[in-house]
Amino acid sequence: MTELKNDRFLRALLREPVDVTPVWMMRQAGRYLPEYRATRAKAGSFLDLCKNPELACEVTIQPLDRYPLDAAILFSDILTIPDAMGLGLFFETGEGPRFERPVRTLTDIDRLGVPDIEDELGYVTEAVRVIRRELDGRVPLIGFSGSPWTLATYMVEGGSSKDFAKVKGLMFDEPAAMHKLLGVVADTVTAYLNAQIAAGAQAVMIFDTWGGALTPRDYQAFSLDYMARIVAGLKREAEGRRVPVILFTKGGSNWLERMAGAGADALGLDWTIDIGEARRRVGERVALQGNMDPCILYASPPRIREEVADILAAWGEGPGHVFNLGHGIHPHIDPENVGEFVRAVHELSAPYHH
């Protein structure tokens, strides 16, 4: 494999010294870029774009051609796993993702099995291989998956949900059935991420988008325990170096200490916590990624720089910080503002790294 020309993202995740704070953005390959919209139109649909390795590679690399980002993230969707389990994923205009066959009963759960990753999700691993080849060592490639709890919410609800009535109903009324579902999903996520690592992903991230909807007790039992199980089952070395793992629970700042004990190398933060406070709470146990409010990118360039400066100052000196947004970038952000953001992180962070 080609040697990495820029590995500061991987080094920061392992709390090793870097020259400047590395930066990338969740959803950096997305609708805010006109070139992404053009490729998506060419693909025909979002799902067709995900399932075409060459086009997935094209949109993965588009933001890197515009901005000096320190990592690429595989272009895919968290719902590829339930789709591979036979639930029949489709997207309704204005409604988001939907499943033809949601999982509602123990009988439905009993029918599920861990899919053959190379067979059912081979388009994802092929995309990883194509992206690695085309990146040619420019920056590391991040692979990812949704967390078991987050995937289960979509599988049981049949799509997006505001109140999680069906999935929480199952969890409270039939916890054994819920644990059985989460176990199958966790085993699938483990196999899926290991397949991405084998194909060339140099770091992996687990997105627990809906963990923050749970009580502290239920977060531990139905979300964090399963993420810890996945982390324990991952291949942590490839190509002669460590493959770092990032856990991200949106709304999870109450549980940082517990998350830091789950075995990952880094935790993602949303914008609801001060990063300096988060650093004090987790100490030297993990690196931290985050955590600018994505809506700051609607503001003027001077205001964006000011926010970047504030977050860098809150972190202070020393390694272990990857700069990111607290969640995905919004579709209507001006691409020029993104350029200002990325430049600001690199320019303003240099004095913090001796």
Descriptive account of the structure:
It is a single chain. The protein is α/β, with parallel strands linked by helices and 354 residues long. The protein has one domain: Alpha-Beta Barrel (TIM Barrel), CATH 3.20.20. Helix content is 47%, strand content 13%. It is built from 16 helices and 11 strands. The strands form 3 sheets. Strands 1-4-5-8-9-10-11 form a 7-stranded parallel β-sheet. A two-stranded antiparallel ribbon has the order 2-3. A hairpin with a 3-residue loop joins strand 2 and strand 3. The longest helix has 25 residues. The chain is globular, with a radius of gyration of 19 Å. The mean pLDDT is 96.
Helix-strand layout with pairing:
Elements: H1 8-13, H2 34-43, H3 46-50, H4 53-66, E1 72-73, H5 80-84, E2 89-92, E3 96-99, H6 106-110, H7 117-120, H8 122-135, E4 141-146, H9 148-157, H10 165-173, H11 175-199, E5 203-208, H12 216-232, E6 237-238, E7 241-242, E8 245-249, H13 256-260, E9 266-268, H14 275-282, E10 287-292, H15 301-315, E11 321-325, H16 335-349
Parallel strand pairs: 1-4, 4-5, 5-8, 8-9, 9-10, 10-11
Antiparallel strand pairs: 2-3, 6-7
Q: Which architecture does the CATH hierarchy give at level 2?
A: Alpha-Beta Barrel
Total helices: the number is: 16
Count of folded domains: 1
| Silhouette | globular
Order of helices and strands: HHHHEHEEHHHEHHHEHEEEHEHEHEH
Kindly report the spatial arrangement of strands forming the biggest sheet. Answer: 1-4-5-8-9-10-11
Q: Flag low-confidence runs.
A: none
Mean pLDDT equals 96
